[in-house]
Amino acid sequence: MDTPREPIIEFKGVSKTFGDRNILDRIDFSIYEGEVTTLIGLSGTGKSVTLKHIIGMLKPDEGQILFRGKAIDQMKKAEWNEYIGQISYMFQNNALFDSLTVFENVALPLKYTTKLKKKEIEQKAMARIEQTELTEVADKYSSEISGGMQKRVALARALVTDPNIVLFDEPTTGQDPIRKNAILGMVADYQKRFGFTALLISHEIPDVYFISNRIL
Q1: b or e along 32-50 (b: 16 or more beta carbons within 10 Å of the residue's beta carbon)?
Q2: What is the pLDDT of residue 166?
Q3: Which one, 24, 29, 167, 171, has least CB within 10 Å?
């Protein structure tokens, strides 16, 4: 008989209220290593709120969030730094800096979260830029490139730190059907190539089904 797998991230009875609005009501779910898990629901139902709990931007009013069985709110500083260092976040609106080039946007997390030397940062950032087929626009500003390319820049930046877990906040919002499929295909392709665990939130049904191992 197979031994049950341990989840990498687990929500146990998590509730969150803002004023008199109960956004999360005792939610339970598990994310398993090496899978693409998609959390679907209507706009305004707490999907982004859920992601923000994983990275500590929000804390639950009740319940616990566990990483490999350990409650994240009980982690010591070194444990927390190790945990958060494994996670990357791709924002819904890309969150690119207009004043930085494509290269500078991609290199930014390495500059501020690692102790790599300038040359190593350049090499890693350019490797991700090449893998996401952005070499030709590396010196352009984000306002000078298409929406689809901006998504790829956001993805390259999310992957540049070699994360174990990538959180995707509505990666296809505002895209036409062809571009939606291209972005989801890109997420699936890079997830297979790099082997990270992905949590994707979306209200695009059934578009997300073909890349997901698990739908919540």
Answers
A1: eeebbbbbbeeeeebbbbb
A2: 95
A3: 29
Exposure of 206 in the CB half-sphere (CA atoms within 13 A)? 2
pLDDT category of residue 23 using cuts at 50, 70 and 90: very high
Torsion angle in degrees (nearest 10) through CA of 36, 41, 42, 44: -90
Residue type, 149: M
Evaluate whether 132 touches 96 at the Cβ level (below 8 Å).
Answer: no
Q: For residues 57-67, give the mean pLDDT.
A: 96
If phi > 0 it is left, if psi is from -120 to 50 it is alpha, else beta; for residue 29 that is beta
Buried b (16+ CB within 10 A) or exposed e, 174-208: ebeeeebebbbebbbebbeeeebbbbbbbbbeebb
More confident call, 43 vs 54: 54
| 3-class DSSP assignment, residue 40 | strand
Structure letter (DSSP) for residue 55: T
Q: Give the CA distances from residue 137 to residues 133, 140, 142, 151, 199, in Å, rounded to whole numbers and listed in that order.
A: 9, 5, 9, 13, 28
How are strands ordered across the β-sheet holding 9-18?
21-31, 9-18, 62-67, 70-71
Q: Residue 135 pLDDT more than 70?
A: yes
